[in-house]
Design brief:
The structure holds 2 protein chains of 2 kinds. Chain A folds into 2 domains: about 45 residues, no CATH class; about 220 residues, Orthogonal Bundle (MetI-like fold), CATH 1.10.3720. Chain A contains 18 helices and no strands. In chain A, helix 3 crosses helix 16 and helix 6 packs across helix 10. By secondary structure, chain B is mainly α. In chain B, about 75% of the residues lie in helices and about 0% in strands. Chain B contains 13 helices and 2 strands. In chain B, strands 1-2 form a two-stranded antiparallel ribbon. In chain B, helix 8 packs antiparallel against helix 9 and helix 12 packs antiparallel against helix 13. Chain B is globular and about 70 Å long. The chains are: A mainly alpha, B mainly alpha. At the A-B interface, helix 2, helix 3, helix 6, helix 7 and helix 8 of A face helix 1, helix 3, helix 4, helix 5 and helix 6 of B.
């Protein structure tokens, strides 16, 4: 823009901002293309899940299904126990996320508001685990869980991943910003740690609570390698693991059925994302701001 | 006296509140970490009662095995392509999203959505899109007169396929982090540059990019660690094949331990991966400390 040079200095900022605000045709077009390219796969997944084999295997492609036919979903549900898997995934996600939040919350409270020996070491112990990639622990954990008789059990899927490092870290960061005076006043009123935690700290931490809870929901729901290793009984599988079973049974011969199950795996978390987008994104990108 | 009692009570509360989390971390992270180092010195198959101490034998085997070169190359190609691609495309997307254009909040939502989805499910979905006969992509390629490559079978296409899916899944995350960084770049700096006659590209290169260095380094570390641990997308799409052409270090660990049952050897490979990740992070952290404080 050559015009900016002739504009008197004080108004340059305004002029520039106005320039930013004008819907640039090229920018708008580029953004539109990006949105279509990035969004198309998900739309295509949903459309394909309603298509009959005749509609799926056609050249050139048939874009829309002839009708909203649920046959693929029915067939997926008759090949793998889809309802049971959905219940397993929901139950394990809620239990896992709930416990993770509780563990992180309590641990961070102790690390910030309590004085005890080796506190720094305890914090270092928590933070250092963020550096340990899960796959180095997976073989020993597998044999350990097997020795407990926990293969093909819910606790086998749940317990090894429960410990909260990321959550503890975020809670601690937040607790350090809380006004000490409120807690000291509560203490003078005779409030114990338990009531300080629940009546003062928790109500002042709802955004962090929501962020940690939502991130845990997403990771628990999508977790794949560990549940895939410890469970081969379809009654105990989570949805992503069940999808593996369906893939190996049906192979690539029946895309409609496989994609119907893929919709069942992805849609719940997609809805959570659409409804609670702001909080979820805040949680998932928290590392960049605090780290 | 009172102080001692208070201290004792605080200790009990600490044990009660922090104890469970610490106990779980010790049991399921630190104990297996050490055990894994020990297992890496054994010739031992998963579930077998017999284990033989071989010292550094497993490591020697890893460094001399004929497949190692291929696995390392595949890992390097996958990592560089996914991390580099995500950073470049993510920054481009962030620059678009930074402009006040109609529909940019929709674009933000659409771009970020894949990041919250199951990697395995996403892999299955894209496998269908890549289908050389009935997939969406062969149709789109057909519009410009290009015949679809044999994505499933002809090298290097299977690796390209996995890289594309990884990029699609992570692009929105990178873009959003960059967007936050961009919005922290003071507007007057850009204005001053514009005043000095700097064009858009020049402002980006001389003002915006240097100020984004901390963001770039953060993303570099995060993306590197995440990319090197990719499993579910590869498992869904190629199972490491064909002919091992998509077998990364991470996938090789899974295959050696849980498909071939060679848990001792796999532990050695896992240790190699762990040390690599530690080294990469350490180097980057040092570099970050020297480089980040631009302003």
């Amino acid at each position: 823009m050559t015009t900016t040079r002739t504009v008197p200095a004080p108004t340059v900022g305004v002029a520039r901002r106005a320039g930013r605000g004008r819907p640039h045709l090229a920018t708008a077009a580029a953004l539109l293309v990006a949105t279509v390219v990035l969004g198309a796969p998900l739309v295509w997944m949903v459309l394909a899940s309603f298509k009959t084999p005749g509609e799926l295997y056609q050249v050139p492609l048939q874009w829309l299904p002839g009708q909203l036919d649920l046959a693929n979903y029915a067939q997926a549900a008759s090949t793998i126990p889809l309802g049971r898997l959905l219940a397993n995934s929901i139950g394990l996600t809620i239990a896992g996320a709930g416990l993770k939040v509780a563990l992180g919350l309590c641990c961070a409270y102790a690390l910030v508001f309590l004085d005890f020996p080796f506190k720094k070491l305890a914090f270092a112990l928590v933070i250092a685990t963020l550096m340990v990639p899960p796959q180095i622990t997976i073989i020993p954990n597998y044999t350990f869980v097997a020795s407990l008789g926990w293969l093909n059990t819910y606790q086998g899927i749940l317990v090894p991943g429960l410990a909260s490092a990321f959550g503890t870290f975020l809670f601690r960061q937040h607790f350090l910003t809380l006004p000490r005076s409120v807690l000291e006043a509560a203490e003078l009123d005779g409030a114990g740690h338990w009531s300080k935690l629940w009546r003062f700290v928790v109500p002042m931490s709802t955004p962090t609570l929501a962020a940690v809870a939502l991130v845990s929901v997403v990771t628990e729901w999508n977790d794949y390698l560990w549940p895939f290793l410890v469970v081969d009984d379809p009654a105990k599988m989570t949805l992503p693991v069940g999808l593996t079973l369906l893939q190996s049974v049906d192979g690539m011969t029946n895309w409609g059925v496989l994609l119907a199950a893929t919709v069942v795996v992805t849609l719940p978390i997609l809805l959570v994302f659409l409804v609670l987008q702001r909080r979820l994104v805040a949680g998932l990108t928290a590392g960049a701001v605090t780290g | 006296m009172l102080g001692a009692r208070r201290r004792r009570r605080a200790l009990w509360w600490a044990l009660l509140l922090a104890g469970p989390n610490l106990l779980l971390l010790v049991t399921f992270t630190y104990r297996p970490l050490l055990e894994s180092l020990y297992l890496s010195t054994l010739q031992w198959n998963l579930g077998s009662p017999d284990a033989r101490f071989v010292g550094l034998g497993n490591y020697a085997e890893w460094f001399t095995a004929p497949t190692t070169g291929r696995i390392v190359t595949t890992t390097l190609v996958f990592t560089v392509a996914t991390v580099g691609g995500a950073l470049v495309l993510g920054l481009a997307l962030a620059l678009l999203l930074d402009r006040k254009v109609a529909g940019r909040s929709v674009a933000r939502t659409v771009a970020f959505a894949p990041y919250v989805l199951s990697g395995f499910a996403v892999g299955i979905l894209w496998l269908f899109i890549f289908d050389p006969r009935y997939g969406l992509l062969q149709e789109v390629l057909g519009w410009v007169g290009v015949a679809s490559p044999q994505w499933y079978s002809d090298r290097p296409w299977p690796l390209v396929m996995v890289i594309v899916v990884y990029l699609w899944k992570n692009l929105g995350y990178v873009a959003l982090i960059y967007l936050a960084g961009l919005q922290a770049v003071p507007q007057d700096l850009r204005d001053a540059a514009a005043l000095d006659g700097a064009g858009r590209v020049r402002t980006l290169r001389s003002i915006v990019l240097p100020l984004l260095t901390p963001t770039t380094f953060f993303l570099l570390v995060t993306m590197l660690l995440a990319s090197m641990q990719t499993f579910d997308i590869i498992k869904a799409m190629t199972q490491g094949g064909p002919l091992g052409s998509t077998t990364t270090l991470m996938y090789a660990i899974y295959e050696e331990s849980f498909v071939n049952g060679r848990a001792g050897y796999a532990s050695a490979v896992a240790t190699v991966l762990f040390i690599t990740l530690l080294a990469v992070t350490a180097v980057q952290m040092r570099y970050v400390q020297r480089k980040v404080h631009y302003v």
